[in-house]
Give the backbone structure.
Amino acid sequence: MTISTESMEADITRVLLDGRLDIEGAAAIDLKMNVLAGSAKFLLIDLQKVSFIGSMGLRSIIIPAQNVHRRGGKVVLFDPVPMVEEVLKASNIDQVIPIFHELDAAVAALQ
Amino acid sequence: MPIEELQDLIVLDSQLSELSRALSWAEGLANRLGLNENARYAIRLCLEEALANVVLHGYRNEPGHPVVIRYQLSSDMLSFAIEDKAPPFNPIDTSPSATQAEPPNLESLVPGGNGIRLLCQFAESLVYERLTDRNRLTIGFSIFPPAI
């Protein structure tokens, strides 16, 4: 599991995740996700290259998202593959962290 | 290697680092059966959630206890029976209802509350038994069309 970031317009930080967000994957990104959650105001979490997510991976998204939210920021999820999206929906996460498949719409939701 | 030659059980020690062995074993089985991506995902998800639950909650992350997984194959179902000697625990009893109200906001979302919910939603069947000295959780998956 790898994690990288890039700065976008309007103070948005795009977080690119790549690999399996299983127990090992979650452990690999948790520290960096928590650091990002303490500094970034608008997070676009790019899930295009995440092939798997389990409950530990969900934690790696929920906890940083809550921290960003408490600081007055916003988080969106971008373009998960169908089975990853199914897990997000089964967990009701899509109800509180919106999922977008179009980049323009994801960026607009953060502004 | 024909399916008959695959080892029908695997024994893990009760630590999270052991989970990858079980997942690789199950992946090998899925390969032999020619299962599709969705079935593979469901199997991986459910085994990871169930085994993590045994290690973290059943054995409280204490190594040195065996966890035995066996597979069974019928014409249209692949099942995994997970046995452990942790205190009695029926995950089905603790499952949040799939129809429960949506969380009204991000703050109300419980970060750690999803494992058993996912297990219940992605398994085709889920049976818990308390045997004399151990728990057995049997997780079944439909395999259509029959692969062998």
